[in-house]
Amino acid sequence: MVRQDLVDYIKKNVAKGYSIDYVQNFLIKHGFNAQEVGEALKASENKPRQDNNSLANAFAASEDKPYLAQPSQDQSRMQLKKREPLIVLLLGFVTFGIYPLYWLASTSNELRKAGKSAPNPHLLWLLLIPVVNLIVMILFILRYCKAIKELTNHSSVLLFIIFLLIFPLGMSLSQIEINKAVP
Prior knowledge:
Oligomer: single chain
Shape: elongated
Structural class: mainly alpha
Low-confidence stretches: 49-72
């Protein structure tokens, strides 16, 4: 059976000027079943909506954000990658500090996709600018620790202090916490 909320969402966003392909990719990217989305696309092209509930229509039309149910927390956590903390630690030493930057960018990106308020991994490019790099790194790690706290309720202050004092240990502890959240 076709989900009417998907059909309505598609119609609403196509009416706003988004292409059908964009809306389809957006829904699939955010955890909706590709088959359900395909059925809803066909239904949105074939039949006009026959819902006369004007209050619901006015509410849905006034929202700028999607009014569909978000994917479950388990679906968003599936985007997190499980890594061996000891390997993360060892690669940091073997690569003389290059892997930790890659690891920070990768895990920040995964946390962002999982809906956490992790920092933008592109901010790590600012580490190339002298003096600015210290400020950026402190702010980046602080926000990263807050995202880990959102994910696992681990103390962000303690993790931040560990990151500042012993960066490799902070990486390993963060990876352990991320691994706990991966289903």
